[in-house]
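Last lecture ended with a question: if I hand you only a sequence, what can you say about the shape of the protein? Today we answer it with a concrete record. The protein is Tetratricopeptide repeat-containing protein. Below, first the input exactly as provided, then the predicted structure, then a couple of comments.
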Amino acid sequence: MKKTVFSLALLATSLIFAQKSEVKDAEDALEVNDFGTAITLLKKAEPLKSELNNRWLSEFYLLKGKAYEMRAFAGNNTLEDIDIAAKAYNNAIELGRDVDEASKKLKVMKQNLVSSAIKDQNKGENVIASDKLYKSYTLNKKDTMYLYYAASAAVQAQNYDKAINYYSKLMDLGYRGIKTQYIATNVETGKEESFQTQDMRDFSVKSGKYVNPKDEVSKSVRGEIAKNMTLIYIQQDETEKALEAIAEAKKESPEDLEILQAEADLYYRLGNIEKYNQIMKQVVNEDPDNPTLYYNLGVSAEQLGDLKGAREYYEKAIELDPELENAYVNLATATLAKEKELVEQMNKLGTSPAENKKYQELNKKRKKYYREALPYLEKVVEINPKNLDALRTLLNIYYQLAEDEKAKKINSQIKELTGE
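The predicted structure:
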């Protein structure tokens, strides 16, 4: 019996030596970036890892974290591997042996994940960017700003259910997003610069290279979050939830013009035109000389089908800023929108004398709209000679109105811009 026990002890010792060898071989594999081999070796060592002493077990977890992290950023199973790596680093921290190293690796991995998400956003891949930013938040839930960024990326990806989920979490957490910027003026350049910490700023001021230290505190973003939730709920026809979100937004930012405009839009959709007009007057009264505000009101009115109101807002915007290109574009678009109904009527007509006469009458009206739109489009091209959409629309109208010389000139501009 003693011989059997001795043999089992030898077997256990042999297995532990094998595990240590696999851990060491995994480390060697990672030295040459062969994370695939390292993961295979670590999986072999995993079943009996409890037999390892703290030193080897801590090394095992550090290597496991590194291997899965490397595979994640190589583009394979990114978020799943990040989870495994994070758990491994946290296991090493819990052992208490390599706390600083494991904590540093976890922090760097999170920074790399955020950088990867930013690259995805720059490429327009907002879905995966949102997922990565949310994962960054879950790695350390004290960093709620990453949840905020994840929600913003979800909005960009038009994944509104996910955005609402993240925004709701932020509101429940009491997130305000208030930041303090530590600023001082560079003596040499005369320009203000921002520092990461107050100590860095104060040290630079003491050196004499910077003067005029000041702190700038950003405003709470809860109003913005509530406003975004409102707009999403409006789009999803969740009226009650939209009203609740607007009420919350107004608590934070009672004079925010975008929130007021969103509220006005909601009441318009609900058919409460009296309330809509009341709020719109308040919006204008808050900033009566702001051309961008009138332009935005015009866009809102147009989206809601109030074309007459939209034109009035665009014209007021132009009155305040005669170079506001988009206002002219939208005025032209609103004018040409009337043509659609005429074209539909014209296409339904037959070839009888009465119908031919009706066709001519409708075509005359159609050209009238073209002439009304011309000054707006010509102004757009005057402001921005590279606006291809405006140039092409203008070219088509000149052809329709038989203004061949003008069409020829516009056609040359288009060819010059496109190289066609």
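Comments.
1. Strands lie at 180-186, 192-195, 210-217.
2. The radius of gyration is 32 Å.
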